[in-house]
Each structure stands twice: as structure tokens, then as C-alpha cells.
Design goal:
The chain is elongated, with a radius of gyration of 19 Å. A three-stranded antiparallel sheet has the order 1-3-2. It is of the alpha+beta class. Strand 2 and strand 3 form a beta hairpin. The protein is 69% helix and 13% strand.
């Protein structure tokens, strides 16, 4: 087991994305791969702050890096988010059922 795996085991994916700046970075990378400079400009965070968040996202498997000349390009890896999607599924059904019941009730009142 390497250090990256060891750190990730200590921090759950839920903890990683609980931080609002990391969610903002994920959302930005969802649109297209970005350099650190672009992420800094978008988030208005310091370069060291962005680098810290990117390291955590990388350790969680949410981003990968490719090199382009002098730049490092960060890419979103959506597969780890499947864990969260799977966890949320029963809650989606819960709310869909509640909203369907509310819709029926409102239709009856008309």
C-alpha cells in the first residue's frame, strides 16, 4: 500500500467533497481539464491553497494530472463519485415518493 492509498483510507470521499472549495474545483473541472493557474483565477484562492485542495482530490482519486510542456493539467475522474451516487439513491427514491404524494394531494384539492 502506498502513501496515497493510506491517506485516502483516513479521509472518506464524503469528507473530501464536504469542503466547499473542493466542490467548486470539482465543478470547474467537470467542464474541462484546467491548469492550476486557471483554477486559482476561478476560485480566487491562493496558489498554495489550490495545490493543497488538488492534492487531497488527487489522493481521493477524483483528479488526475497530465503534463503539457511546463504545465500540469488537472482532469476530473468521476468514477469515485459513483460511491456517493449509490449512497444517495435510496434518498432520491424517498423524496420522489414524497413529492409524488404531495402532487397527488394538490391535484385532489383542485
Amino acid at each position: 500500500m502506498n502513501a496515497t492509498q493510506n491517506n485516502y483510507e483516513k479521509t472518506s470521499l464524503f469528507e473530501v467533497i464536504a469542503e466547499s472549495n473542493r466542490r467548486k474545483i470539482i465543478d470547474y473541472l467537470r467542464i474541462s481539464p484546467r491548469t492550476v493557474t486557471e483554477i486559482v483565477e476561478y476560485t480566487k484562492l491562493s496558489q498554495p491553497g489550490v495545490s493543497k485542495h488538488l492534492k487531497i482530490l488527487r489522493e481521493a482519486g477524483l483528479v488526475t494530472i497530465t503534463k503539457d510542456s511546463q504545465s500540469r493539467i488537472y482532469h476530473l475522474q468521476g468514477q469515485p463519485l459513483k460511491e456517493i451516487d449509490n449512497w444517495l439513491e435510496p434518498y432520491r427514491r424517498f423524496w420522489e415518493e414524497r413529492l409524488d404524494a404531495l402532487e397527488e394531494l394538490l391535484d385532489e384539492e383542485e
